[in-house]
Amino acid sequence: MLTEQRGFIILEVLSSVLILSICAVVILFAVTTSTKQLAVSMQRLKAMEIAHGKLEETMGVEFDAITSIPKTNYPASYGEYHYAVDIENDVECSEFLKKICVTVYFTEPLSGLEKSVTIAAARAKR
Predict the structure, then answer these.
(1) Does the keyword Transmembrane helix apply (predicted)?
(2) What b/e sequence results for 63-79 when a residue is b if at least 16 CB atoms lie within 10 Å of its CB, and e otherwise?
(3) I need a labelling partner for 43 at 20 to 30 A (CA). Which of 6, 83, 118, 122 fits?
(4) What whole-number distance in Å separates Cα of residue 107 and Cα of residue 99?
């Protein structure tokens, strides 16, 4: 009878280890996935901050000196980011109003695809 009980205890221990292993794998998978998504979100947030900074910089320029900037590399200290500034004159008030669109491009690490964020504002002549 003692041997049957030992065999039963071994089965209990093995089944417990199996259940804990499955739980550990699921938790590790969830942590890994969320860490990757966090990295993508942080990269997008940094791109938004760069776009906002470029927009503020452009808004500070004299109205007549505001011009479009083609896709340009951002300084290397910020990583692999590129930006472009597109200036459109307003159809009805072209002498007094300009639409400024700043687009920041970056490569998403998970997919390797180029992604972008765009932020826009209008600037009136004072």
Answers:
(1) yes
(2) eeebeeeeeeebeeebe
(3) 122
(4) 26
Among the listed residues 39, 34, 51, 54, the one whose alpha carbon sits nearest the alpha carbon of residue 107? 39
Given a cut of 90, whether residue 6 has pLDDT beyond it is: no
SS3 percent helix, strand, coil of the chain, rounded to 5, is 50, 30, 20
| Cα–Cα distances in angstroms (integers) from residue 119 to residues 40, 66, 96, in the given order | 19, 16, 21
Q: Please report, in angstroms and rounded to a whole number, the separation of the first and last CA atoms in the chain.
A: 97
Higher pLDDT, residue 31 or 1: 31
The answer to whether the beta carbons of residues 116 and 89 sit under 8 Å apart is no
Q: Which residue reads 């695809």 in tokens?
A: 113
Q: Which amino acid is at 107?
A: T
Quick check: helix, strand or coil at residue 80?
coil
pLDDT in tens, 60-74: 999 889 999 999 888
